[in-house]
Amino acid sequence: MPLEEPARLARDLASHGFTADREAITLLAGAEDPESALRVAVEAASEDELKLSAAAVRDALEAGPRGRRDPISDGAATPAGSTGDAAGAGRGSTRSNPSVSGGDGGVRRPSDGGGAPVETEGSGGAVDGGGRTVDPRSLSVGNDMTGRSTGTGEYGDFVATFRDRYERLAGQLRGRVAHRNAAALEASPGGGEAGMVGMIADISSTKNGHWIVDLEDTTDIFPCLVMKDKPVAGVVDELLHDEVVAVEGALSEDGKILFVDDLHFPNVPRTFEPSTADRPVQAALVSDVHVGSQEFMADAWQRFAAWLHTGAAERIEYLLVAGDMVEGVGVYPGQDEQLDIVDVFAQYEAFAEYLAEVPGDLEIVMIPGNHDAVRLAEPQPGFQEDLREIMAVHDARVVSNPAVVTIEGVSILMYHGVSLDEVIAELPEAKASYDDPQKAMYQLLKKRHVAPQFGGHTRLAPEDRDYLVVDEVPDVFHTGHVHKLGWGKYRGVLAVNSGCWQAQTEFQKRVNIDPDAGYAPVLDLETLELTVHKFA
Ligand code: D5M
Ligand code: FE
Ligand code: ZN
């Protein structure tokens, strides 16, 4: 299908005196023969209708004589994503899409209407013994705290969150060092080897240029001295408050301080090997759409959405959006002067229309960002019900920030990325910068926490559990927020920061942020290779 197909269909409909909602156009564009599908839909529409709805197109195509026959319903067991007909044909031609299937009524998508993960069976969209089609896709979500917030904002809740963080990250470190707790170190007479696992309570420099790192555990705080001329001093500039590390070294003769020789981060094991999908299937990873901003690049987004309908994108079965779907309202002072849509609900309605332009059979997962209409403090729940309903286009799933999305066996840690600003501000340029956002992501993987530092830029919400701890090493780490495109591998984990769909704002001009706008990184789940497509 040519790239401009949806636009052409819209013009065609206009020539018949119709407008159509975007989903209706998506459905038409996904038909084997969009032109005859359009004719069937137009013929079926009643004379007084002005706008062709998706439902009307669906009805017309199901009843009509010219709807396509799906290869799956023919019992051909065509693997999804393979090209069933001529090369370059539209992606819809090999998909099981009930809305554009032939009149035999034999095609159903088991994933429809259920939030439960879809079982993976076989390698393609086959028909099982009962004549039911089996969707080869599989998607499940972990660490979603939507609807499970327990925090009341009381001091005691913060204590619970930090205790949970300490326990879980210390658990990753304890087996690696001979350690004693702070109280035991205080009680010891001094001298000899010593180690400790603790949360960083403070970092200060001495007048001679050495460093004192105060480590806290559940018993007390113990000071650890890092001498400036030791190799371990090279990691001090990576340390953030409230992250959990282990140290090894020697206790001073008076037993009051620990001289550090080695420092360990929870980190990704060097032996980590990511999992991959067992069929050629791809996911588009985007973020920061910012619908409602005057700078939202509607044309670029629409080119992307139209491209997703083409044969070139037929292996893309998943779309992940890592937050900032809309520009929001009142996010920063003076923002209202740069809004295209001033009502936040209207912004989500508009976002939903743009989202409706992507193929209806994509599996979509979204998390909120700092511009979205949920609490700013992390973890952010996946919106309240009214907004979830607006965004549920194509059965999109909306989950919390952060969340772990497992697709075809590949786990993807999705996090909007507000802490990246902090990591970039605190660490030296070579270790984290806006030009290389993936390096800041490596730091979060190393710390096994998506937002380690409390009380600064990043707002944390107290919960009975620290949802920001990275318990399991993900195969892929997907963030956005800094509006820069960057990717790379850290110990086998692919880190992708996905750019944005918003041109440079006044604020960004003032502070010299040059955004990477209009790019869609596409992840091959079988090889974990990334290709970037440009639409701006
Ligand atoms: O963030 C986009 C990027 O720009 C991110 O790196 C933060 C930065 N940014 C944007 N606006 C501001 C203000 N007002 N103060 C500080 N930093 C800012 P986004 O979440 O899309 O706004
Ligand atoms: Fe953003
Ligand atoms: Zn953001």
What does this structure look like?
With 536 residues, the protein is an alpha/beta fold. It has three domains: 1-86; 136-149 and 271-534, Purple Acid Phosphatase, chain A, domain 2 (4-Layer Sandwich); 155-264, Nucleic acid-binding proteins (OB fold (Dihydrolipoamide Acetyltransferase, E2P)), CATH 2.40.50. Helices cover 23% and strands 20% of the residues. It has helices at residues 5-15, 22-30, 34-44, 54-63, 155-173, 182-187, 298-308, 344-356, 385-391, 418-426, 437-447, 506-510, and strands spanning 19-20, 51-52, 126-127, 133-134, 139-142, 193-205, 211-216, 221-226, 244-251, 258-264, 282-286, 316-321, 363-366, 397-398, 403-407, 410-414, 476-479, 485-490, 493-498, 519-524, 529-534. The strands form five sheets. A six-stranded mixed sheet has the order 5-15-16-17-19-18, covered by helices on one side. A six-stranded mixed sheet has the order 14-13-12-11-20-21, with no helix packed on it. Strand 11 (282-286), helix 7 (298-308) and strand 12 form a beta-alpha-beta unit. The longest helix has 19 residues, at 155-173. It is elongated and about 90 Å long. Residues 65-90 and 92-131 have low confidence and may be disordered. Bound molecules: 2'-deoxyadenosine-5'-monophosphate, fe (iii) ion (FE) and zinc ion.
The CATH topology annotation of the largest domain reads as Purple Acid Phosphatase, chain A, domain 2
Which ions and ligands are bound to the chains? Answer: 2'-deoxyadenosine-5'-monophosphate, fe (iii) ion, zinc ion
- Classify the secondary structure makeup into a structural class: alpha/beta
Q: How many strands, which pairing sense, and closed or not: the largest β-sheet?
A: 6 strands, mixed
Overall mean confidence score, pLDDT: 83
Share in helix: 10-25%
Percent of residues in beta strands? 15-25%
Unreliably modeled segments: 65-90, 92-131
CATH class placement of the largest domain: Alpha Beta
What count of structural domains?
3
The number of helical runs is 12
Kindly provide the radius of gyration, computed on alpha-carbon positions and rounded to a whole number of angstroms. 26 Å
CATH architecture of the largest domain: 4-Layer Sandwich
